[in-house]
Amino acid sequence: MKSNNRLVYFLQEIGIVVIGVLIAVSINNYKEKQDNEAYLEKTLLAIENEINSNKTALDSVLNRHIEIYDFFERDSMDKKQSLGEILYSLGGFQVATVKNISLRFFVANKAELLDFELIAYLLEIEQVTDILSAKINRLADFAYGHVNDSSAETRTRFTYLLMDIIDSESNLLKAYADFMEENEAYLEQIGK
Question: TM segments (predicted)?
């Protein structure tokens, strides 16, 4: 009989320990889930703020590029000014400073917390940003190489390269808008 009592007592003690461990694990999981949601919300808001800043700069530069493009389409073919003189008279060529710091930090640390669709939007933004940067470099190389050239061919090539940049800037603004829409829905969903 004593052996049976010891066994029951031993099983009770093990049961208490197991229940205690399960409670501790549940509390830890709950706390980790809360911490992850808070981290996710802060990071997504930081990315959103960064995108809003980028959008403001990009909108301004895009409008400027459209003005330059319109000038080249409308007025520059009749003039004998060099490419450099035309750009100088128009106030120069501008480039928007586009940052992806929050995105890179987030993806490097806790990307597994984020919905796949949001990651896809963020990666699209980064890809379009890289493409835009390459196009700007291509235009800058062309412009510097032909700054003193006044031929119609140079103006036409510059216009094509500029239109390519305008297209990428428009695509980036669309990617920003798509992300912001999806992000708003996602933040509402995790805020429940």
Answer: 7-27
What is the rounded distance in angstroms from the CA atom of residue 59 to the CA atom of residue 56? 5
User: Looking at residue 63, what is its pLDDT?
Assistant: 93
Is the predicted pLDDT of residue 1 greater than 60, yes or no? no
Query: CA torsion, points 85, 91, 93, 94, in degrees to nearest 10?
Result: 170
Instruction: State how far the Cα of 69 lies from the Cα of 87, in Å rounded to an integer.
Output: 11
Contacts of 128 (CB under 8 A, 6+ apart): 168, 171, 172, 175
Displacement of CA 97 from its chain's centroid (Å): 13
Of the CATH numbers 1.20.120, 1.10.20, 2.60.34, 1.20.1740, which one belongs to the domain with range 2-190?
1.20.120
Q: Extract the tokens encoding 46.
A: 């930081």
Is the pLDDT higher at 144 or at 118?
144
47, 69 in Cβ contact below 8 A? no
Taking the C-alpha atoms of residue 162 and residue 135, their distance in angstroms, rounded to an integer, is 9
Q: What is the pTM of this model?
A: 0.78
